[in-house]
Design a protein that fits this description.
The protein is mainly β. It folds into four domains: about 110 residues, no CATH class; about 220 residues, Beta Barrel (OB fold (Dihydrolipoamide Acetyltransferase, E2P)); about 90 residues, Immunoglobulin-like, CATH 2.60.40.1220; about 180 residues, Galactose-binding domain-like (Jelly Rolls, Sandwich). The chain is about 10% helix and about 35% strand. The chain is built from six helices and 36 strands. The strands form six sheets. Strands 23, 24, 26, 27, 29, 33, 34 and 36 form an eight-stranded antiparallel beta sheet that branches. Strands 9, 10, 11, 12, 13, 14 and 15 form a seven-stranded mixed beta sheet that branches. A hairpin with an 8-residue loop joins strand 4 and strand 5. The termini are far apart. The relative contact order is 0.07.
Length: about 625
């Protein structure tokens, strides 16, 4: 596959060219240098070869040689331009009358037709190059480096279409099938839209830009699909054995990869956390997981497949992404990326029953190691010894908890068994060696009375409580810091967190010691022994570092909760449990707030900035039902 480029420039022989076309304008300017070269060679016999460009080079000592019987030998369309001007000008010094721009291009041996052809050829003959050569300037290029090739590419094959995901807009990957050179076309860069994978396209590239580490086409026109249905198998690059060094300049590569997830997920980078998450991994070539190369999945796929530490994965068609932070000296990190669940196979450990608790009367709560497929969970799938009737089974939103409603408990302990037909979201059956659990009924288990998880995506984002007793579901999280609360990627794979700050003219969290806080309201009626079982917080480098938990029964007078002070980082940290004082038990309304305990920012000892942000996630408040 080749590409053609067209370039145009102004012709310096404009005056001479217009004369050859019949223009009666009179040329003229300085001919000093041309005169010194041409004068000795001009003779009457040469006159028929004088061109419109050469006429201005006739010098005073040539004048006697120009005679009427020479004129008939001049080309008819040249006569009007040569004779009147030449005869008149040769009575005086013609030096001032030759165009300055004509002088450098005039030579005695060039005819009018040759001159015109020479100039046109230099400006309009297309140059050719390969896509690899077009991308050569981008090797190790800095963010925002760009070129404007104005090049027409033919025969590119579209390998992968990248849809809009969260805050990150889509586009498509393509490859030159001749040498495997890949490129990414940015979203909405061309008016013709996005072709389907397997399409063969012709397109004119207007601009290529290094966008945060990925060279991509950001302006193009004339996209035309010339064929469809290309077999992409031979265009995939197997990168199982790639070491970290092999990933250099591999952006946009269409690849296949098998490996094992190592550790939890983290933000995808570039402020696009709500759409993607990334995981460290190991493979044949990556023996030690790290930050330099990490696989990247949409949050929706992570949630649907419950991808987590220890899962094996095989990607049969992905696009190589990369990310470099805008700060000087930031390293380029590579992110093999999946955009379609159909291109990903995941195998994880079988789900295990890890706990069973009871309220001592008619409820049993079972906890599992992995999210269950709710379509496989029904009351008949759970049996007890001694016998205990199960009337209903309800799966939690995250799929890891099943609440059973049973007959009244009469025994002091029970053993529950889960049927092998119950599976996780990948279809894996319950581990046969971890499908039973024994629990006592003498201890009443605490229950969640209020919980905030903020939804799983932009469509389900909510500031209302998503779990707890009926009186608390829907109770809103608020803030006394200035500005609006927005959604952002949360601590877990499954959902979002709440964030505030970083948008002028909001005044955010600065100068908020003792006043600016996250606030929740809930009821504890019918419950005692209250705890904040868990919460997760994070602040940006310029956001507030120090927080503490305080409670109130009227929303005005606040009292610090013992052992609740926390120091935040620019990464999610989990806190709790902390015990709430006895005075909050069995109350119709209780307020909790996570309030700034200083004006110090996360990164250093200086003050919180106006643009500093703070996030909170996974608030869980529990209590023991009153007998």
């Amino acid at each position: 596959m080749r590409l053609m480029t067209l370039g145009w420039r102004l012709l310096p022989l404009f005056a001479a060219t217009t004369m050859a076309c019949g223009d009666d304008s009179t040329p003229g300017s300085d001919t000093t240098d041309a005169t010194n070269e041409v004068s000795p060679d001009v003779t009457p016999d040469v006159t028929p070869d004088v061109t419109p460009d050469v006429v201005p080079d006739v010098t005073p000592d040539v004048v006697p040689d120009v005679t009427p019987d020479v004129v008939p030998d001049v080309e008819p369309d040249v006569v009007p331009d040569v004779v009147p001007d030449a005869v008149e000008e040769t009575t005086q010094d013609v030096t001032p009358d030759v165009e300055p721009d004509v002088v450098p291009d005039v030579t005695p041996d060039v005819t009018p037709d040759t001159v015109a052809d020479t100039e046109t050829t230099g400006d309009t003959t297309p140059t050719t190059s390969t896509l690899a050569e077009l991308l050569a300037p981008f090797a190790a290029s800095a963010n925002n480096f760009e070129t404007t090739p104005n090049a027409t590419l033919s025969g590119l094959v579209v390998t992968l279409v990248k849809p809009d995901v969260g805050e990150e807009l889509g586009g498509f990957f393509a490859v030159d099938p001749d040498d495997g050179t890949p490129i990414f076309f940015a979203p909405a860069a061309g008016a013709a839209g996005v072709p389907v994978a397997g399409s063969v396209i012709d397109v004119t590239v207007g601009k290529i830009k290094n966008s945060a580490g990925v060279p991509m086409v950001t302006e193009f026109t004339g996209l035309a699909v010339t064929a469809t249905g290309t077999d992409l198998t031979s265009l995939r690059t197997n990168i199982d054995a790639w070491t970290e060094a092999d990933y250099v300049d591999s952006q946009s590569t269409y690849f296949e990869l098998s490996g094992e997830i190592s550790g939890g997920s983290s933000g995808a980078g570039g402020g696009l956390d709500a759409g993607f998450r990334r995981f460290a991994f190991t493979s044949t070539g990556i023996a030690t997981p790290g930050e330099g190369v990490q696989v990247r999945f949409p949050v929706s796929i992570i949630k649907a497949l419950a991808i987590e530490d220890g899962c094996l994965f095989t990607i049969t068609g992905g696009g190589m992404w990369a990310f470099r932070a805008p700060s000087a000296g930031s390293p380029l990190r590579f992110q093999p990326t999946v955009v379609d669940a159909g291109d990903l196979t995941v195998l994880c450990d079988a789900p295990r029953l890890t706990a069973a608790t009871t309220d001592g009367n008619t409820t049993v709560v079972l906890t599992f190691s992995r999210p269950l497929d709710p379509t496989t969970v029904e009351a008949a799938a759970f049996t007890f010894a001694p016998a205990l009737a199960v009337n209903a089974a309800v799966v939690s939103i995250d799929g890891k908890t099943v609440t059973l409603t049973t007959a009244e408990h009469t025994a002091t302990s029970y053993t529950v068994t889960v049927d092998e037909l119950v599976t996780d979201v990948l279809g894996e059956a319950i581990d046969g060696e971890a499908d039973t659990f024994t629990f006592d009924t003498g201890t009443v288990a605490p229950v969640v009375i209020a919980g905030w998880s903020f939804g799983t995506d932009a469509a389900t984002f909510t500031l209302g409580a998503t779990s707890g007793i009926a009186a608390n579901v829907g109770k809103l999280l608020s803030s006394t810091a200035d500005g609006d609360i927005a959604s952002v990627a949360g601590n877990t794979n499954e959902g979002l967190a709440a964030t505030l700050g970083n948008a002028s003219p909001r005044t955010g969290w600065q100068d908020g010691n003792g006043t600016k806080a996250w606030v929740v309201e809930f009821s504890t009626t019918g419950h005692t022994d209250l705890q904040v079982a868990k919460w997760v917080q994070r602040s940006s480098n310029t956001g507030p570092r120090d927080f503490r938990v305080e409670y109130s029964l009227n929303g005005t007078v606040w009292t610090a909760v013992a052992d609740s002070d926390v120091v935040l980082a620019n990464a999610y940290t989990t806190h709790g449990p902390i015990n709430l004082p006895g005075g909050v038990a069995n109350q119709s309304t209780v307020y909790l707030r996570w309030v700034m305990a200083s004006n110090t920012r996360v990164s250093d000892a200086t003050a919180v900035a106006i643009t500093g942000t703070s996030r909170i996630d996974e608030i869980v408040i529990v209590g023991t039902p009153v007998p």
